[in-house]
Structures are given as C-alpha cells and as structure tokens.
Model the fold of this input.
Amino acid sequence: MTTTPRTETAVIDVEGLHSLIRALVRRGRTVVGPTVRDDAIVLAELTSADELPHGWGVAVEAGTYRLRRRKDRMAFAHSAGPQSWKTFLHPERLRQWTATRAPNGSLTVTEEPDEPPAYAFLGVRPCDLTAIATQDRVLMGGPHTDAAYRRRRTGTFLVVVECVEPGATCFCVSMDTGPAVGEDRAYDLVLTEVDDDRGHRFWARAGSTAGAEILAELPRLPTDDSTVAAARDTVARAAGRMGRTMPEVDLRVLMRDTREAERWNDVASRCLTCGNCTMVCPTCYCTTTEDVTDLTGDHAERWRRWDVCYDLDFTHMHGGSVRQTGRSRYRQWLTHKVGTWHDQFGMSGCVGCGRCIVWCPVAIDITEEVHALDAERSGAAPRPGAGGEEGQP
Done:
C-alpha cells in the first residue's frame, strides 16, 4: 500500500457505494464486507451494495447478540459481529501438504498450492484496522514471517468505516483504537456514514494512491462543510457512548502485580475454558498442526488450524500439561492479551472490540475482570460491568 497525503476527499451516496464495489471488482478484487445471514451480521463476499446490512443494527450484551431493525437505512451502524478479518487473512484451517503412496510403494508429497484472491475489505472498523496492524506485527514483523498470511495481506485494499454506533460491549476509546481512524494507521479509503434530514451519504477520504484512484472514479455529491461537520460530530458522539471501559491504569503493570489475586479463582469458577474468546478475537494468532489419513493409509494430509491457550494440550510436554487448571489458563490468556503482549510485540493485544464479551457463553466480561483486579490491588470495591445496548437512532 502506497500512502499519499490524505487530502483527497469527496461526499458520495449509496450509488457511490455501488460504484465503489464495481470499481474494485473491475480490478479483479474479491470484495468482502458485512451482510445479514444466519441471524447475524457476518462477513462475506459482496457483489453489490444492496447486500450490505442497510437498516440493521445489533443489540449486544455479555453473552448476548441479537439483530434489530433500525429506523433508518444506515449500512454500517452496527458493532462487531462474530467474525473478524482474521478469518480471511489468517484462515481457521489451511491444508499444507498431501502425501500419496502409489501401488508400487513410492510416496509423493505435494505442497498445497496457496493462491488467495486479491481481497478488498469494505467496512473495516477502526478497532479492526488496529487488529490487522497487530497481526501484521505478529505474523510479518519478526524474523519468522508467516508466508500464508503475507500472501493474503500484501496488496489487500482496505476501506475503513468509522464507527458511529458503538455497542454496549465496545471499549475502543479505552484502548485508543477508535471510533475514529487513527492517523498512524494504513488504509486505502475511509468512509464516515451520515443519515440526517439532508440524506444518506458518506464522507470519503483517500489514504493511499490506490485509494485516490478509486475515489476519483466515484460519482460525487457536492462537498459541503455541513456534511463534514455532521460526520465528525457523529463520530465524536460515538466516542462518548462506549458501553464499557478499561481502568485508567497501566494494564501491563496491573497484570504483573496481580498474578496471585483472588479474582483469578472467581473467574475460574465461571470459565468453561471453551476458547470462544480466542476464536472471535481479531488478534489471537496461535495455531497447531494435525495430520489425517484415509482408511487405507495410502493418503495423508497435514492441516494447520487455529489453536487456543485454553486447551489442556496447548502446553502439553513430556510429563503433562504446564497449565493444568482453568485458573492458570484464563490468567495466561488475559495476562498476555493486555500485559505481556507489550513485552513480546511492543503493543497491546486487545483492541476493545468487545467480541470476547458477547460470545462468551457464560458472559465473562474482560473489562469487569480487569476492573476487579485493579480494585483488589487497590483495596477498593470491585466495579461491575456496565450494561446497555446500542442506541436507537
């Protein structure tokens, strides 16, 4: 992605979204964005802006996710769904090679061809943009690059949509990842959605040379100060409507100082160690390999798949697993996510998207747990998690 001074701006309407998708498809890109399916807003390939979730929002809480109808036709006024862009950049399952034994006993091993499409992601939230940058750092930033991730990530066209409707479990402000897109983030286009008495429209800005080329092709509305002001005001108001917060302390130090806190026993009594939080997390990256064979034993395959630190076998060594209790495994996940990730990668592993709260089957809330650890350290009463749902338009 070649960055460019971010001065190319325009105002587009829904027809402009159609033109955007058509322009990306003409360039041979597979466009992926949010759409309604299976009672959720999920990420899938798009061929038309009509497939976007116009008029749909979500009501979320700890352990709860429900679609709801909005009173407008906003396409991106919903908080994070069960998937993240990791699904496409770092797939859940990836075959690495196959081995076949011929009747004469010779063995042929074939490396799996990996030719991912040229992706264009439409509707990337600022928190998820930070998550992509985080996985870039983890999987491409060190001496051992993940080749499969690099093939998918290199050249991906990113259309960011600033958040105007945070959910009850969002806390991106606490993690400094939204709702506005950070100036230090790399993207191609950014959109801010506005729907008021002047109509449904988007304030668009280019963040790269490729983005500026696309933007120049789109049909435009007159750029006026009122649209820009409305867009900025909507995002600013979203920042004041976060459903959750993290304590305003150094989380890295907090995790270090509370390793033996009593709170770990409390959360361990509720945690199922199912790993849902890692599956939906946009930054968790751990994988394992598994070998499978057919009934004849003449064909075998090696697959890479996501793994979770909640699995008892995740730390299995000669003599057994290192982390044998749910307490130790939950503590490892949370301590790494908001604490030692800084030591390993120079950044936080949490972007404040709230997915782990929503998709936990027993409604464990990462922000409530961190507040409780902080309260125990300071001797104060624990702070319960905040409640609510996305605001009705």
